[in-house]
Amino acid sequence: MVRLSEREFDLVLRDAIAALPEEFRRLLDVVPVVVDLLPDEELAASVDDGLGDEDLMGLYVGPPLSEWGAPDAPPETCVIFLFQRNIEDDCRNRREVAEQIRITLFHELGHCLGFDEDGLDRIGLA
After folding, report:
1. 3-state helix, strand, coil in the chain (%, to 5)
2. What is the Cα–Cα distance from 79 to 96, expressed in whole angstroms?
3. Looking at residue 1, what is its pLDDT?
4. pTM of the predicted protein model
5. For a Cys-Cys bond, which of 44, 73, 99, 108 suits 80, CB 3.0-4.6 Å?
6. Angle at the Cα of 41 from the Cα atoms of 55 and 75, rounded to 5 degrees
7. How far, in Å, CA of 46 to CA of 2, rounded?
8. What residue spans define the domains of the chain?
9. pLDDT score recorded for residue 49
10. Is the per-residue pLDDT at 66 higher than 70?
11. How confident is the model at residue 53 (pLDDT cuts 50, 70, 90)?
């Protein structure tokens, strides 16, 4: 397990976003990423994956891109949450945190694009 300050985590997050392919970075220009230390009870209860909230590293909230009114104007409810402590608990160093953030962002962006867990599994993002 590793612990980063809020500022350090933000720097790692920015680097991870910069390393994403352009089409994913463009999507993150309109879908905010919010970092919370841990998921609150309401968010954790909204996930029906059979895992505990201590395993929840990220969460996309909002409709899939296909349901947006315009591709560059998501509903105000669209947001990607990252849960800093759960990510850190799974990592031994800053490099692993960066990789886990990248993986989590790909996964949550997959949900934004309309993939369910089975679909994400089929393309290697589960």
Report:
1. 50, 10, 40
2. 24
3. 92
4. 0.87
5. 108
6. 90
7. 27
8. 6-122
9. 58
10. yes
11. low
